[in-house]
Design a protein that fits this description.
alpha+beta; six-stranded mixed β-barrel; six-stranded mixed beta barrel
Length: 752
């Protein structure tokens, strides 16, 4: 018989083990390339979008940038573009908010046209409209749209639709997810700019560090604020999303690859040990050691290679398409496509090469023996008595426990492999279910423990004070002020949220334990995550200003609160006015449902809508949870099934011997089940802290706006235990049922 025919015969005899190895290699590469393909797709697509549109490196804000200021900026930058940006209301039903950009050149952060003609900075009659808004409102090219701002109206013809690199993510004042029928943006030529509208923004490109550019900027002109690219809202939000997906790719597929190595090593060690006599015969008839080694290397090479190639091809094709439809509901880009990186090929090649090395380690020792020694059966393992076996406890243990203890001692690597396989499965499940629990806990924390209102009324910028007071009395509501602010402390700066509110039962403030706290009058409270990021504590001072205002104030931190969804400062109206700033309400909160039409009320959001928007925000994470759960269960089935075959095959002789000695089938089944349950229990216990660590990594990668408190729930632990032990016991019972069909002669003949 040729070696190739022998290999095919051996693979057929051990087909279940080789199928398991193939599937594990496939799943490992499939998960790695799929999750990373999704991440690289996001990264590469967004980078291409930023490059094609010449995305700005920074944004400079001021009340007015005259020609003199622009000249000074041009001296320290490579390229600049001046804009007048204003919030307007479209003359449509529900008065949607549209951010207008009157652009001087259109060369930095360019409008990306997908329909119509390209943006023309000389065309004063046209407007280039946000495609997501245009689609939501059923606009077509050639339609006219009217915008109102500062008491005047302008009417323009829609000459193009598309996207902007500054609006991959659009924040909505009434929802966590963008409602594209209510918000949008538009680009117009500066020639259409009303004379009284000043240039209030300059977009710059530069070839130095952000810090160096800002230092030069500080020396050149007076301005309100500067935002570097990675801090721009859209860029930062999308980067946070990508970071969380990348963390999934960093952690979970590696577990599969490591377990694949261990499974392969275990399987090949067993096959070679069982074919010891055949190897001796091959040596005796003249086959060289290298030929024999290459023969057994092919056992691992082909199934691992096939699994790796299949995973390499299908992973980037399937997994990204599961996420992109969900991502596209919250983010806007011209295209979504999977990415590719040479690391996919390198990891697949590394898996194949490593499998060959692992197989070589399994067969090199026997290849060095002479044919005469190889033809002899391998000497049984001899082990000395352990401390437990020498103790009095040993005599009180049942035969079941003593037999399993000694079997585990003789087959340490198989026991280790079983524990590691279960531990990996448990870790993945704990992390996946933990993320699921965390999302639900954040939702409950924000919308049940903190928010006690039914409706949130957004006030119009031109609201009538008398009408507002009437609404306030009618709804028994409370004014709040929410504004974006820029804070500075410890050489760091960030844009966060300011909440100014009277003591009201419509909002509860909480600590990190989710217990209610009171924010004392006169105190400025900072959120826990923001305090940790800036390394601040009670008594420290911070500088901040409302975005759009040049009035900086210094505040002393009086308290620290915990907020799950948005990070920033909280204070009372009197405290704000003590800082020298005016309390300007932006919303009314009320416990009543509000559906009346007032000119002073721009929009109404209910707590139910906020909960639905939260579910939409978390859909991408939940999809990742589902993928990891399915993959973890598949891992458990493959590992435990393969180990079940391995254990039963290795113990056939011992089981046959026990049957000859009169042990009943049910007792022998109990022996195998006991060992399986013990290994599963050890793997389960060890997998819990590893899973908690994975979960913490995921939470830390969730971005700056969300504040998680990592926790393990009993539901998580019990569900993970149920899945793990059900698979373990089910697989064990499958193989223990073969005891009654065991061929006694075949099992015992090796000891002749």
């Amino acid at each position: 018989m040729s070696l190739s025919k022998k290999m095919l015969r051996d693979i057929k005899i051990n087909k279940t083990q080789f199928i398991a190895i193939f599937l594990m290699a496939f799943l490992g590469i499939f998960a790695y390339c799929g999750i990373y393909g999704e991440y690289y797709g996001l990264e590469q697509t967004s980078n291409e979008f930023y490059t094609d549109t010449n995305m700005a490196d920074g944004w400079i804000y001021n009340a007015n940038f005259n020609d003199s200021s622009l000249d000074k900026i041009n001296e320290i930058s490579e390229q600049s573009d001046r804009q007048a940006v204003v919030q307007s209301v479209a003359d449509l039903e529900d008065n949607p908010d549209i951010t207008l950009h009157f652009v001087e050149n259109g060369t930095v952060s360019k409008f990306y046209t997908t329909e119509g003609k390209d943006f023309d900075s000389e065309d004063d009659s046209g407007v280039w409209l946000d495609k997501r808004f245009a689609d939501a409102r059923n606009f077509s090219l050639g339609d006219n749209i009217t915008f109102e701002f500062y008491g005047q109206k302008i009417n323009k013809e829609i000459k193009g639709m598309g996207y902007s690199p500054e609006y991959i993510y659009e924040s909505s004042p009434s929802s966590l997810t963008p409602d594209f029928s209510q918000i949008g943006f538009a680009y117009l030529s500066s020639k259409a700019r009303p004379e009284h509208l000043d240039y209030n923004r300059v977009l710059v490109k530069y070839n130095q560090s952000d810090k160096d550019f800002k230092n030069e900027l500080d020396k050149s002109i007076d301005y309100l604020s500067f935002t570097k690219k990675e801090d721009q809202l859209s860029v930062a939000k999308f980067a946070d999303e990508m970071a969380q997906h990348k963390m999934m790719g960093d952690v979970f597929p590696i577990v599969f690859i490591l377990v694949t190595f261990l499974t392969l090593l275990t399987t090949m060690t067993r096959i070679i040990a069982h074919q010891r006599t055949q190897i001796g015969i091959l040596k005796a008839v003249g086959f060289k050691d290298n030929t024999i080694i290459l023969h057994y290397l092919s056992y691992a090479f082909w199934p691992i290679l096939a699994g790796a190639i299949l995973g390499l091809i299908t992973g980037p094709m399937i997994i990204p398409q599961m996420f992109y439809p969900t991502m596209a509901r919250s983010y806007s880009m011209p295209s979504w496509h999977p990415g590719f990186d040479m690391s996919f090929v390198y990891i697949a090649a590394l898996l194949v090469i490593s499998s060959v090395i692992v197989t070589y380690l399994s067969c090199r020792r026997i290849s060095k023996e002479n044919p005469a020694n190889t033809l002899r059966p391998k000497a049984p393992k001899v082990s000395s008595k352990s401390l437990i076996e020498k103790s009095r406890i040993w005599n009180h243990l049942s035969f079941n426990l003593r037999w399993n203890w000694r079997d585990a001692k003789r087959n340490k690597f198989r026991a280790f492999m079983a524990i590691v396989g279960v531990m990996a499965c448990v870790a993945l499940l704990i992390a996946a279910f933990g993320m699921n629990d965390s999302m639900k806990e954040l939702k409950t924390w924000e919308y049940d423990n903190i928010s006690h209102y039914e409706s949130k009324l957004q006030l119009s910028s031109e609201a009538n004070p008398i009408e507002l007071n009437d609404i306030l009395n009618e709804t028994n509501g409370s004014f709040i002020m929410q504004q974006s602010i820029e804070i500075k402390a410890n050489d760091m700066e960030d844009t966060v949220v300011l909440l100014v509110s009277n003591n009201t039962d419509l909002i509860s403030y909480t600590d990190s334990n989710k217990d209610s706290i009171d924010i004392d009058e006169g105190d400025v409270s900072i959120s826990t995550k923001l305090a940790d990021t800036f390394n601040l504590s009670i008594g420290d001072k911070i500088k901040w200003h409302i975005v759009g205002s040049d009035e900086w104030v210094t505040s002393k931190i009086g308290q620290i609160h915990a907020e799950p969804v948005s990070q920033g400062l909280i204070m009372s109206p009197d405290t704000l006015e003590d800082q020298g700033l005016n309390f300007t309400p932006t919303n009314i909160l009320t416990k009543e449902k509000f559906d009346e039409d007032y000119d002073s009320i721009k929009s109404v959001t209910t707590i139910g809508k906020l909960k639905k928007s939260w579910d939409m925000v978390t859909q991408a994470v939940m999809m990742m949870v589902y993928v990891v759960t399915v993959v973890a269960v598949a891992l458990a089935i493959l590992v435990l099934y393969n180990l079940g075959i391995l254990s039963f095959t290795e113990m056939e002789r011992e089981i046959a011997t026990l049957k000859v000695l009169g042990f009943k089938t049910n007792l022998l089944r109990k022996l195998l089940l006991t060992q399986n349950v013990i290994f599963t229990a050890i793997g389960y216990i060890l997998g819990i802290p590893l899973g908690f660590y994975f979960m913490t990594l995921m939470m830390n990668a969730a971005g700056d706006s969300l504040y998680y408190v990592p926790s393990l729930t009993w539901g998580n632990l019990l569900l993970t235990a149920f899945i793990t032990f059900t698979i373990s016991i089910g697989v064990n019972l499958l193989f223990s049922g073969k005891i009654s069909d065991l061929n006694m002669v075949e099992a015992l003949k090796d000891v002749e």
